């Protein structure tokens, strides 16, 4: 309402200014009209006088005299009339001139009156326009008042909402403070637990070192006793060579090799030459693995099949088919009863080796699958895919029991000895450790490699994790501290494929990996020193290497499908 009063006041002030501007013009017009009326009256009087003057002598003038004096009287009258006519003519001329002057002035007044009337009409039209503007302004004022009332109501509503949001914000701030306090408390408890866990791990490691030292001393004593017994038997001539020649030769070779170590099930021998070369696949080769309890090898490649070979003779035994795309990973179950193959057709097939029939076809991924692995008891399988998920499969019923969302495409997985943790290597260079029971990430090593990780594999004792990457080096991480324990590099070594697999020897003393140029490199796991380079077996990038469980040979598969057994 205050704004309306102000607008009305402004309009009244403007009307007063404009009225004051036109007031002299209106007054002048009124004066001119009055003057014209006076001039019209004066003109009528003059015209009347002029008509009287033109009609002769004035009324009542005598026209004759008395008898006896007629001649003299007529002469006198004639003289008077002549003089009067001359005077009237002059008066008429003056009156005519005066009338002409008055007519000219009257014409000027008419013109001025006409101009004044025109100006007055223009003023009236301007005033009508101003009145229209005033009406429009009043309508606009009404509209603005309605808008002002609406905005006032909206402001009132906004104020109420603002108060409610303010109350909610204060509650959230209080909740945040409470959560931060709880988080701080949990962090302190977690740090305490980690400290206690590290202390316990250090104590366990110390005990394990003591046990290893004791075990090594006992092994040394056993070897000494065996040598003494062998010497005594040799002297008495009772050495029995039947049925044990190959094992004895292997043991002697391992004992005489400076790079050998006893694994508990045989001597690990670092190979030196290619014993057999087989064209395993017509297309690309991707994966190779040994059966745990036999000399059977399983390979996978771009020809959409798993192929099984006799590792000693190199003979092809049979093929397992059913895939519609390349097989990127092959793994035997812990008992050797089953073999799985992970494929680019987004499926995993588990085959019974004895019957050569599929036991399970596991589907659910939405992109190619580079990796899969069995749990140590064979009841579960874990797979990693480029759809950025890991899946845990129940092999008793053949279905997915858990899906784990990752942060990047997965290139490889490896299950821990107790099957409670699965390690995964990713396209973004990250290595993650996942709890298979809850699906939560227990630890993540960001920047484990600057380029994508191609392989992850637990050591035989489970204390270390070996990774291969496109950084052209291998890295060993301590699974207890998640710190780098060793890096393996060599001149000429480079990782040629995004799924290139490295491996441990059965006793964990050596690590082996294939290079893009076709060689196989072997390092000492403890010292990081390069032990040997196996050359001449491949002409293409090596995709995968696998150590025989007995430790006496190594198999490698190259991208061109060539399989080589090294001894």
List the helices and strands and how they pair.
Blueprint: H1 2-54, H2 70-236, H3 245-256, E1 261-262, E2 267-268, E3 274-279, E4 285-290, E5 296-301, E6 306-310, E7 316-320, E8 327-332, E9 338-343, E10 347-352, E11 357-363, E12 369-374, E13 380-385, E14 389-394, E15 399-405, E16 410-415, E17 421-426, E18 431-435, E19 441-445, E20 453-458, E21 464-469, E22 474-478, E23 484-488, E24 502-504, E25 510-514, E26 520-524, E27 530-534, E28 542-547, E29 554-558, E30 562-566
Antiparallel strand pairs: 1-2, 3-30, 4-5, 5-6, 6-7, 8-9, 9-10, 10-11, 12-13, 13-14, 14-15, 16-17, 17-18, 18-19, 20-21, 21-22, 22-23, 24-25, 25-26, 26-27, 28-29, 29-30
The gist of it:
It contains three helices and 30 strands.
Q: How does the major sheet shape up? A: 4 strands, antiparallel
Question: What is the CATH class name of the largest domain?
Answer: Mainly Beta
Extract low-pLDDT stretches.
56-80, 235-266
How large, in whole angstroms, is the Cα Rg?
Answer: 61 Å
- Integer average pLDDT: 82
Helical content class:
40-55%
CATH architecture of the largest domain: 7 Propeller
Portion in beta strands: 25-35%
Kindly report the name of the CATH homologous superfamily of the largest domain: YVTN repeat-like/Quinoprotein amine dehydrogenase
General shape: rod-shaped
